[in-house]
Amino acid sequence: MSMKQELQQQKNRLNKSQLKLDAAKSRGDDAMVTKFTNDIEDINKKISQLTHKQNFALNKERKALLDMPFSREITKQEQADMGKLKKSVKGLVVVHPLTKLGKELRLEVVTGFAPKEF
């Protein structure tokens, strides 16, 4: 299971537990209230761990791209035939500005990062 799916699953569990907690509070069932309160705390811890892990991986990838010696904007013509471009430039990584990585890098145009000039 990917990190994204696991994070979504934990958020769904949190939402269900919160709904059950509200129902238990309305009934006045103290045992269930404490159980769901503890569950919510555990789920929140797991969610924070997963988001930290996700941010760490994104930061690591961002640093790897910034360490590449060459980067430039990818023209519209090159974007139209991306397969040809990737075959001609070994190690090319293309980043779109609307992806998480693109937003992290604060890109405004589609940019290519490569170990050699292209």
From TrEMBL:
<protein>
    <recommendedName>
        <fullName>YibL family ribosome-associated protein</fullName>
    </recommendedName>
</protein>
<dbReference type="Pfam" id="PF10928">
    <property type="entry name" value="DUF2810"/>
</dbReference>
<feature type="compositionally biased region" description="Polar residues">
    <location>
        <begin position="1"/>
        <end position="18"/>
    </location>
</feature>
<feature type="region of interest" description="Disordered">
    <location>
        <begin position="1"/>
        <end position="27"/>
    </location>
</feature>
<dbReference type="InterPro" id="IPR021230">
    <property type="entry name" value="DUF2810"/>
</dbReference>
